[in-house]
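Section 5: illustrative case.
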């Protein structure tokens, strides 16, 4: 039996192009451990999926990339006779909206649910067995049925390391996840809803995976994808100690995400012990009022100023993120944010900057829905997070405190500031994207878990 897995990626999403499909590699590793007789391959081109002749195809998608998932699935449905499965945050947030070309959807954490789908497909081609499977949405007699939630995998350490050997790293950075979910409830973010609760891999699991990456790939830096890596100081300390035992801080530098209100002197000392080189934390706003709305926690601008100063003393590079256009913001708040970034621009190696977008599963989505600004049948391409691709004719304007014209003026000013700060980063990203696209043109397919007829070889 052959399983093809794909991430739906918008061609404009430069950052996403540079991220290896780690979630798919987790799914592949889990399936192959439980069902070693099957073949699993990770693809990024539909032509290779068709050549692979799969029995099942799984496509993962976030909301900003959902139009790409629709286009990809329509192409595959027209050329293959096998079932298509949809997974990821978008379908998890809106399960009743399962598109007609998909036969089933995986809701939330995917490993155990996808395993159940594969096992039942092997058993009876889903003729009867889907009704007993939890954590899915599926079609029955022409109707969409949503099953009860599936159980979360406990402990997380029972999940095998992601199968990085099935991914092509040309032009891409290596990534690691040490947890799932987030203990915070930010108004704009979906991980808490998608993963349902915050769970962590043990320090020993994390460090053994780091060792595996260092031994398998010629890397000097490792990106930790956790939404809140510094959530638990004791765990952080244990990871740092194990890293030192293995000599890892001398071999790799880390890029991690944190929250400003979690970064004290002790946390910074531990991060330094790990050889963390770059910190990303969501500053988001330069207004205490807006910070309270966005983060649902008593974070203040004065506190953030202190954290920036402390991190610079410890020698960390800083790559924070910002957001503007949320419902409570005023023109004065946006001006304050512009001044804040301008005053600190020499302290940042790069920044992320987002116009506020109401993604399904978030508080902002609920607000925008109540205001009649979004719907479950909307054009999902309107929900792009890209500042540089901002389109005033398509953007969902949630903020009523500034006019559309004023907001667009702020967009232009923030775009200019973004390009100034990210001049080097954008050049490096463009070069990396070009390398990835050259690799795709020469060899479009990721490696299968076992040799299969019709697939391009490593030397192709």
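Designed sequence:
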């Amino acid at each position: 039996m052959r399983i093809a897995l794909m991430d739906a990626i918008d061609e404009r999403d430069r950052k996403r192009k540079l991220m290896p499909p780690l979630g798919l590699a987790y799914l592949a590793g889990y399936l192959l451990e439980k069902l070693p007789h099957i073949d699993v391959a990770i693809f990024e081109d539909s032509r290779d999926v068709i050549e692979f002749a799969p029995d099942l195809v799984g496509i993962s998608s976030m909301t900003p990339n959902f139009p790409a998932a629709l286009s990809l699935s329509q192409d595959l449905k027209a050329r293959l006779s096998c079932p298509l499965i949809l997974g990821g945050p978008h379908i998890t947030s809106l399960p009743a909206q399962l598109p007609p070309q998909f036969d089933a959807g995986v809701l939330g954490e995917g490993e155990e649910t996808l395993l159940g789908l594969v096992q039942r497909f092997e058993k009876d081609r889903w003729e009867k067995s889907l009704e007993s499977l939890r954590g899915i949405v599926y079609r029955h007699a022409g109707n969409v049925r949503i099953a009860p939630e599936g159980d979360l995998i406990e402990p997380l350490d029972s999940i095998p390391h992601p199968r990085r050997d099935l991914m092509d790293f040309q032009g891409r950075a290596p990534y690691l996840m040490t947890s799932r979910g987030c203990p915070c409830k930010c108004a704009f973010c979906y991980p808490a809803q998608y993963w349902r609760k915050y769970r962590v891999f043990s320090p020993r699991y994390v460090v053994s995976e780091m060792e595996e990456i260092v031994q398998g790939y010629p890397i000097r830096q490792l990106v930790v994808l956790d939404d809140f890596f510094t959530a638990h100081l004791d765990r952080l300390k244990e990871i740092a100690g194990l890293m030192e035992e293995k000599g890892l801080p001398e071999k790799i530098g880390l890029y991690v995400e944190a929250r400003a209100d979690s970064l004290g002197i002790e946390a910074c000392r531990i991060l330094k012990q790990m050889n963390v080189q770059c910190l990303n934390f969501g500053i988001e706003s330069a207004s205490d009022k807006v910070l309270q709305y966005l983060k649902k926690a008593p974070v203040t601008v004065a506190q953030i100023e202190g954290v920036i100063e402390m991190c610079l003393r410890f020698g960390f590079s800083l790559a924070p993120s910002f957001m503007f256009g949320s419902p409570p913001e005023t023109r004065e708040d946006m001006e304050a944010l512009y001044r804040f970034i301008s005053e600190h621009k020499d302290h940042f190696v790069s920044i992320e900057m987002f116009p506020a977008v109401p993604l399904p599963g978030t508080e902002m989505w609920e607000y925008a829905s109540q205001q009649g600004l979004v719907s479950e049948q909307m054009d999902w391409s309107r929900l792009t997070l890209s500042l540089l691709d901002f389109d005033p004719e398509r953007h969902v304007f949630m903020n009523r405190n500034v006019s559309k014209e004023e907001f667009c003026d702020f967009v232009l000013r923030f775009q200019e500031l973004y390009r100034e700060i990210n001049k080097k980063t954008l050049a490096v990203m463009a070069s990396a994207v070009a390398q990835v696209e050259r690799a795709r043109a020469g060899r479009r397919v990721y490696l299968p878990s076992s040799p299969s007829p019709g697939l391009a070889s490593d030397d192709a």
